[in-house]
């Protein structure tokens, strides 16, 4: 019998620690060649798009996909898991909250393996739905003491700072510009839907780690070409998807400021096959694409937890 | 609220007539540019494969996908439908029976627009799960009086002949070779998983219409190159998918016996933009790929019927 998990049930089961552990495992498995992945495909619909991405992890016994219809009225996300040994459908999981946590966790994994060990401060540009889990994830892998947040609306950045100060028990302050938010910090997170760059090379100090986690589209850029060119190590969760969706790297490559040969798969860094940082002064950049095998890994963990705890609704059939 | 439909519920709702009507509509819509389609993508799993294909039809208010894990233990198919105007998930539909009927119906539509009007006999090679709906669909669009069936196991072709004679009230006879099954018939159906051709050019008479509906893989061929070369009109439900999955056309093209420029989209024939047959003596060939927009169209109809009749289970969430 297949299990249906609602957003509320997922929210009760899922913690950042669980997501980080699931992603660490699946990145290692991927570096062993155990994981298959199909990059996001899109179909335009009315005022939005329909998105579909899939992955397989036969050694863990699972294969599946995430689909979502995103439009003016918000988005509706679902993950379906199938067994790889003839079990058929295992689960349908509402995946809005799940996606928010796994996207944070992907930046957490990158930060774990790429940022300086002693990193203690974060500057975050963007204060939307995805920003909370970004900060939470970074704080889960480094001993973060303080953070600064900038977004265009003062009210929203103030509210984010208050909320996250309390939730993470660290000092989170609003900043009144992107420059101010990232000045002097050890880790930068960009998590915007910016069309034009919000983070420029001029704003970067040596030794900083950057998680670029904003909207995926070749039409958008969060970093300018100078910032890309300044990055000593550039990693991503999926190279195929990066080459068709990562506007800032595509632009930098097209203009001769970046070579795709330099792009490293994060799973190789997690596995220790490549270095995430060669020296303290390196600028390191993680380009987060949000990939199906990440969804699969977190949902597989959720399914096991739900089964164990008796949570969820059995589907008919 | 989204609706879940089981195989039994689908089986009770769906008839060949309904599937034919749904496909006729969606082919017309596609020829108007109203339909988007993403060809089947596959991931290998254990002893089988995981398959994912998607389509959109915003004018009908729907977008969605079909996924299935196929392996030694059978296959498990599901279609998910989303609204294109922010409605979120509309339905999860078990799609094994649905796929069987829609694949038959696609051949039915091709036969309706490509076979001679007076066609009255069918030769079918293959007697498996998909063969029944192939014959049913052809019999639904032409005044079929008789059919012959060949498959390798005598017991299975005898049982198919008995079963379908009764179900369709026509004379269905087993044949003891592929040659005998197709000799002198007006419509040929191949619906096998053959690796090597079961239908050769030598077996073809002028004026015949062929539905090639068997397994989709570039490694398989149901027709030999001579049979492809003899076909005056060659149509398919999706050109993109044909170019990566249709072994017999790929082989014929590679060896210079077929030009992709000759391949016609069935929707253009349905719409009357292209001729499905120019003269009675033409050999016409429909290469059925099985495409997501066909699933979407039939499932959309099923969903409307289920809502109207109060069938199905509301999903939580």
Explain what you see.
The structure is a homodimer of 317-residue chains. Chain A has 317 residues and is α/β, with parallel strands linked by helices. Chain A folds into two domains: 3-99 and 293-314, ornithine cyclodeaminase, domain 1; 107-290, Rossmann fold, CATH 3.40.50.720. Chain A is built from eleven helices and 15 strands. In chain A, the strands form two sheets. An eight-stranded parallel β-sheet of chain A has the order 9-8-7-10-11-14-12-13. A seven-stranded mixed β-sheet of chain A has the order 2-3-4-5-6-1-15.
The Cα radius of gyration of chain A reads 19 Å
Main sheet makeup of chain A: 8 strands, parallel
Please tell me the CATH architecture of the largest domain in chain A by its name. 3-Layer(aba) Sandwich
State the CATH topology of the largest domain in chain A.
Rossmann fold
Number of helices of chain A: 11
Give the overall average pLDDT of chain A. Answer: 96
Global morphology of chain A: globular
Distance between the termini of chain A: 8 Å
Order of helices and strands of chain A: EHHEEEEEHEHEHEHEEHEHHEHEHE
Q: Give me the CATH superfamily of the largest domain in chain A.
A: NAD(P)-binding Rossmann-like Domain
Strand order of the largest sheet of chain A: 9-8-7-10-11-14-12-13
Oligomer: homodimer
Number of DSSP-assigned strands of chain A: 15
SS-based class of chain A = alpha/beta
Strand content of chain A: 25-35%
